[in-house]
From TrEMBL:
Record-level GO cellular component terms: plasma membrane
Subcellular location: Cell membrane; Membrane
Keywords: Carboxypeptidase, Cell inner membrane, Cell membrane, Cell shape, Cell wall biogenesis/degradation, Hydrolase, Membrane, Peptidoglycan synthesis, Protease, Transmembrane, Transmembrane helix
Top-level EC class as recorded in UniProt: hydrolase
A molecular function (GO) term: peptidoglycan L,D-transpeptidase activity
GO biological process: cell wall organization; peptidoglycan biosynthetic process; proteolysis; regulation of cell shape
Name of the protein in question: Penicillin-binding protein 2
Membrane topology value: Single-pass membrane protein
Gene (UniProt): mrdA
Enzyme Commission code(s) on record: 3.4.16.4
Length: 384
């Protein structure tokens, strides 16, 4: 028996109602999505306008710190003891260089670069931000400047900069008084961060390490300035938007007399010893010499490992400041001070005499006797 398929009659009105309901749902869905999109656009362009504008400016505007000029040091007569001299350095900006190692290898084909200089560059680079330049070679001579200038087009991100470098015209004569400046190392930076001074050293590469340079670092350094510059996508400066000049460090005038310092240094003539000359009127230090000494300019420009080891291994210990670290018996130099104090306090008079048997023992004590250089003593002596 054959079953016939039952024909179905389409309900066009039901389909129309279903389509209409779906269209309404889709319409409201689109309206809701458009509303969310408009609300999000409003939030970004109106409510968060300042935030996104700042982010945009950060990509377009950079703040470049400017190092202040270090203060100068003079003697009591106005003679310059520590000055700043212009030098030319070869610097690399990591942010602008794709392959730094390859760039350095290419630079070695036109300039002499030692492994020690490369190692020092990488150490400096590790503690420097990518957009800041790092020196590879310092104190370029005229020939080196000329050679690189001709080939500069081959090295994007590498440039020659002119900076001021500390120089000590009297060299080893004043090393143990003035000290020297040298590159900021990790220990220096950690100390600056602890003291919340690191912001003032963003553009500074040298800091006082010894002597006057270290003790008066805050005065000599000055205050850093900055400039806001607009840069393009390659990091090239288009224009300067704002400039705040740095405040130079203060100049310092010492009690020291360089002519007397030179004279005392000449008298010691490289022999081990020290000498200090004081002004009895105010105890001002007129000369202070520790011998032997060394040239501080070697440390300013970065002393080589071999040269530093030679100083460390020198049996005469030139690195030791004998005027402050040496321990010496005062001998007869103490007599005038004791005599003046005794006269002032009325313990003795100009006519008081004492017998010198060749030794002295602390009264009412069992301590050992202190011997005179003359075993049998000087006999009867007075304050004169």
């Amino acid at each position: 028996m054959i079953r016939r398929r039952r024909s179905q009659i389409r309900d066009y009105q039901a389909e129309a109602r279903l389509f209409a309901s779906r269209a309404i749902v889709a319409f409201f869905g689109i309206v809701v999505l458009m509303g969310l999109l408009v609300a999000n656009m409003y939030n970004i362009q109106v409510n968060q306008f300042q935030d996104y504008q700042t982010r945009s400016n950060d990509n377009r505007i950079k703040v470049v710190p400017i190092a202040p000029n270090r203060g100068l040091i003079y003697d009591r007569n106005g003679v310059l003891l520590a000055e700043n001299r212009p030098v030319f350095n070869l610097e690399l900006t990591p942010e602008k260089i794709k392959d730094i190692d390859a760039t350095i290898q290419e630079l070695q084909t036109i300039l002499e670069i030692t492994p020690e200089q490369i190692e020092r560059f990488h150490r400096e680079r590790k503690r420097t931000r990518r957009f800041k330049s790092v020196p590879l070679l310092t104190q370029l001579n005229e020939k080196q400047v000329a050679v690189f200038s001709v080939n500069q087009y081959r090295f994007p991100g590498v440039e020659i900069s002119a900076t001021l470098k500390r120089y000590y015209p009297y060299g080893e004569v004043l090393t143990h008084v003035i000290g020297y400046v040298s590159r900021i190392n990790d220990r220096d930076m950690q100390r600056l961060i602890r003291e919340e001074k690191d912001a003032n050293y963003q553009a500074t590469r040298d800091i006082g390490k010894l002597g006057i340079e270290k003790y008066y670092e805050d005065l000599l350094h000055g205050t850093a300035g900055y400039q806001e510059v607009e840069v393009n996508s390659r990091g090239r400066v288009i224009r300067t938007l704002k400039y705040v000049p740095p405040v130079p460090g203060k100049d310092i005038v010492l009690n020291l007399d360089i002519n007397l310092q030179l004279y005392v240094h000449q008298l010691l003539d490289g022999r081990r010893g020290s000498a200090i000359v004081l002004d009895p009127r105010d105890n001002g230090v007129l000369a202070m010499v520790s011998s032997p000494s060394y040239d501080p300019n070697a440390f300013v420009h970065g002393i080589s490992g071999k040269a530093y080891r030679d100083l460390l291994n020198d049996k005469n210990r030139p690195l030791v400041n004998r005027t402050t670290l040496g321990i010496y018996p005062p001998a007869s130099t103490i007599k005038p001070f004791m005599a003046v104090a005794a006269l002032q306090e009325g313990v003795i008079t100009p006519n008081t005499t004492r017998n010198d048997p060749g030794y002295w023992r602390i009264p009412n004590s069992d301590t050992r006797p202190f011997r005179d250089w003359l075993r049998w003593g000087h006999g009867r002596v007075d304050v004169i």
